[in-house]
Amino acid sequence: MKIAYLLSWELGKQDGVTKKVYTQAEQWLKAGHEVRIFCISKSVFTPSDKVPTFIVIRKSSKNIFSEFSHISKAYKQIKAGLQDYSPDIIYHRSEIYQPELKQIMTSYPTVVEINTNDLTEFRELARKNLKGKIRYIYYNIIRDQYFSRAAGFCCVTNEIASLKSFTKYSKPIEVVPNALNPDKFRIENNSGTSSIPKLLFMGSPDQNWHGVDKILTLANATIGELQIEVIGPEKPKNISLPKNINFHGYLKQAAYEEVLKTCDIGICSLALHRNKMDEACPLKTREYLAYGLPIIIGYKDTAFYESKPEWVLQLENNEDNIKNNINRIVSFSKTYKNIRVEKKEISKYIDTQIFEKKRLDFLENIIHPVINS
Predict the structure, then answer these.
(1) Rounded distance, CA 125 to CA 96, Å?
(2) Quick one: pLDDT at residue 65?
(3) Which of 87, 200, 244, 324 is surrounded by the fewest CB atoms within 10 Å?
(4) 355 and 270, same structural domain?
(5) What is the pLDDT of residues 309-324, one digit of tens each?
(6) 372 near 178, Cβ under 8 Å?
(7) Which range of residues forms the domain containing residue 187?
(8) Spans of the chain below 50 pLDDT
(9) Are residues 191 and 164 in the same domain?
């Protein structure tokens, strides 16, 4: 197949999404397919010299209407690049729909990757500010135009794939959880000197479903028993923080690896219920595991749907899941202090090589449908 991977993302972040996109594309190349990434970004950074990448730089704007205009101009350049490449199929990471996508999705069969319950997420963001409200209104107006043109959906969880807001389009749907290449991560012994277990949370700012407020609750309840490091979210303002929690802000990989080496446990999202969701497969969870960290999760992970290893502590997906489980968390953390999970144990849950075959088979079937007799 000749595949175009289409998305809008800031590649210069070098974050989990960027790593995921290039890891997927590398696996597709390895499987013998032709691949080119088409991305609208604010930088020209590319993390892989193996994957041909067509990048269109767009201007930044604080005005949401100017922002849409800049994106529209960028998509016109993307459209020209696609015409030159002439793919058999487009694999597209979902985003806010732009009018230029109409012609693109009409010209080429396009499989849209769905990573979240989009309606609840946009609704949550709409509560924050005027920009969020405008995005939410616009998204609701154009959503049907967007997804009705898709040739199929590739969803990261079973829960998303079963939502009526997607099944109503009567498109082929496949479930392929997020994954990564564990061989690109090195598992090292804990290099820290803490006498008590040290927990790590990595996430993004202003994501209510991450449950950073619950991590503060955990810290307050475990002074002298646990130490917590937070990477990504900024330090809360006008709040007196307990002495056993540190906020590092945004760090690039080399910097956060130095913190991670000193930690024992990875904390995953703790408030997915706020997004009206129960199942997830976050990239950060897979990254914790790739580094050998046992994890604490507050949701059902797609990878552990059939069986859950002992190095996963799963809490209830409700508002009180931390407050009601302080003792369990402390006990789990003490049990796994200074212990790294071996790569052979984690690979079957997170290895992209396993899951990308399933995705490629789905794309192939979109182009050449198998007709059951």
Answers:
(1) 13
(2) 60
(3) 324
(4) no
(5) 999 999 999 999 999 9
(6) no
(7) 182-350
(8) 372-373
(9) no
Cβ-based neighbours of 282, under 8 Å, separated by 6 or more: 178, 268, 269
Same domain, yes or no, for 169 and 202?
no
CATH number at residue 322: 3.40.50.2000
Can you give the three-state secondary structure of the chain, one letter per residue? CEEEEEEECCHHHCCHHHHHHHHHHHHHHHCCCEEEEEEEECCCCCCCCCCCEEEEECCCCCCHHHHHHHHHHHHHHHHHHHHHHCCCEEEEECCCCCCHHHHHHHHCCEEEEECCCHHHHHHHHHCCCHHHHHHHHHHHHHHHHHHCCCCEEEECCHHHHCCHHHHCCCCCEEECCCCECHHHCCCCCCCCCCCCCEEEEECCCCCHHHCHHHHHHHHHHCCCCCEEEEECCCCCCCCCCCCCEEEEECCCHHHHHHHHCCCCEEECCCCHHHHCCCEECCHHHHHHHHCCCCEEECCEEHHHCCCCCCCEEECCCCCCCCHHHHHHHHHHHHHCCCCCCCHHHHHHHHEHHHHHHHHHHHHHHHHCCCCCC
Decide if 286 contacts 179 (C-beta within 8 A): yes
Same domain, 355 and 265: no
